[in-house]
Amino acid sequence: MARIRVLAEELTDELESPTLVEGLPGVGLVGKIAADHLVSEFDMTHYADVFCEGVPKVAVYMEDDPALHPPVRLYADAERDLLVLQSDIPIRPEAATELATCLGPWFEELDVLPVFLSGIAREKSEDVPALYGVGTDGAASRLEAAGIDRPTETGLVSGPTGALLSNAVSVGRPALALVVESDPQFPDPEAARVVIKHGIEPLVGIEVPVDDLVNSATEIRQAKEQLARRMQQSDEESTQARPLGMYQ
């Protein structure tokens, strides 16, 4: 049965129209790295477990902790009105539609503004990755207010995040997406840093320390490479943004 099992009910009344950062694995693992960093940096509370259709029926465990958990979880920081959707495994695009249907009523109940994250492949460069934002009509104005650039070309977001955004468009739910240039082959902590500093910070109105993210870039890449390889070898399409070109 599809459901969200709330573990920290006392936080529900403290959340006021929270912003949710989505962290499904995708190109460069940008969302995954950013979400994990927020949860760790703010010592966020394990708020709820997600048991939605489409989420693989597996159990995960953490280092130095014998407790089992579902692979998709929600974390909360009531002081910052912040939620994070954390996933330890890829979600198939077709399954993400079921996930969106499951999460939708909960978004509306708590008046959640979801911010979805996606990488867009770029050639290796020493330049700072470019970032832009898109959103549904009910939320896109927040991007300009936060000083986030508009897209410079026509494109699309595919994979599970694309399915979640498609659902938001179809039902008229407010939603935003941050798209950042990222390495298409390896975990990209620098792209995640750009998303946090130039996207999440101004949108949520918070300050996120990223020194650990930058200083531990090599360790983060090594820790996430197994997941990245698994996604590259899989036939399932991962989240990514890509240009459509003038003549699609």
Provide an overview of this structure.
It comes from Haloferax volcanii. InterPro entries: Proteasome_assmbl_chaperone_2, PSMG2_sf. Residues 226-248 are annotated as: Disordered. It is a single chain. It is built from 7 helices and 12 strands. The chain is an alpha/beta fold. It has one domain: PAC-like subunit (Rossmann fold). The strands form 3 sheets. An 8-stranded mixed β-sheet has the order 1-3-6-7-2-8-11-9, with helices on both faces. A two-stranded antiparallel sheet has the order 4-5. A hairpin with a 4-residue loop joins strand 6 and strand 7. It is globular, with a radius of gyration of 17 Å. The mean pLDDT is 87.
Gist of the model:
The protein is built from 7 helices and 12 strands. With 248 residues, it is α/β, with parallel strands linked by helices.
